Structure formats: structure tokens, C-alpha cells
């Protein structure tokens, strides 16, 4: 995917990343959030942007999070991932 292959219109939430109190990513809550986005007609999702808490994730956690979301979305809508480091 490149920037010209995406229809940049519609609703694209900048998704927050839910965490447990111990600092681990809360994948159950995140799964519910992704499902809510899909059920409510979002046109794409931004991950690990300024609201994505990328700065508090290790590189392996970032990869796991991306794979998790891509698996849930299953190609139905675009997913754009922030790569700030």
C-alpha cells in the first residue's frame, strides 16, 4: 500500500492503545475497540500515532499490536501505522 492507493476520505479514528494497570497491552479491550470501529463504519484506522502510546511500547510490542489489528481487520479497511521512534 502507498499513499496513492488509499481513499483518504471518511472516518479514520486515531486509535488509542488500551493497557492493563501493569503496563501490558490489553488485547481483549483492543479487540472490542477494533470491532466497534468496524461495526460503526470507519473507513480506516490509524495506529500508534500521537494517541497510540507508541512511546511506551517495545519494538516487539509494536509488531504484535500491528499484527493483532491486521488480523482483526482482515483487509476490510486500511490500517495506517505510525513509525515514529
Quick recap of the structure?
With 85 residues, the protein is mostly helical. The protein is 33% helix and 7% strand.
Model description:
The chain has helices at 27-39, 59-73, and strands at residues 45-47, 79-81. The chain is mainly alpha-helical and 85 residues long. Strand 1 (45-47), helix 2 (59-73) and strand 2 form a beta-alpha-beta unit.
What is the secondary structure topology, with strand pairs?
Layout: H1 27-39, E1 45-47, H2 59-73, E2 79-81
Parallel strand pairs: 1-2
Q: What is the makeup of the main sheet?
A: 2 strands, parallel
Gap from first CA to last CA: 21 Å
Order of strands across the main sheet: 1-2
List the total number of helices: 2
> What's the helix-strand series?
HEHE
Low-confidence stretches: none
Strand content: 5-15%
Q: Mean of residue pLDDT?
A: 88
Rg (CA only): 12 Å
- State the secondary-structure class: mainly alpha
Q: What is the general shape?
A: globular
Classify the helix fraction into a percent range.
25-40%
Task: List its salient traits.
single chain; mainly alpha; 2 strands
Amino acid at each position: 500500500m502507498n499513499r496513492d492507493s488509499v481513499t483518504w476520505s471518511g472516518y479514520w479514528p486515531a486509535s488509542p492503545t488500551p493497557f492493563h494497570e501493569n503496563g501490558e497491552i490489553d488485547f481483549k479491550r483492543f479487540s472490542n475497540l477494533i470491532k466497534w470501529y468496524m461495526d460503526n463504519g470507519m473507513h480506516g484506522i490509524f495506529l500508534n500515532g500521537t494517541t497510540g502510546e507508541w512511546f511506551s511500547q517495545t519494538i516487539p510490542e509494536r509488531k504484535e499490536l500491528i499484527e493483532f489489528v491486521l488480523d482483526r481487520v482482515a483487509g476490510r479497511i486500511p490500517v495506517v501505522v505510525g513509525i515514529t521512534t
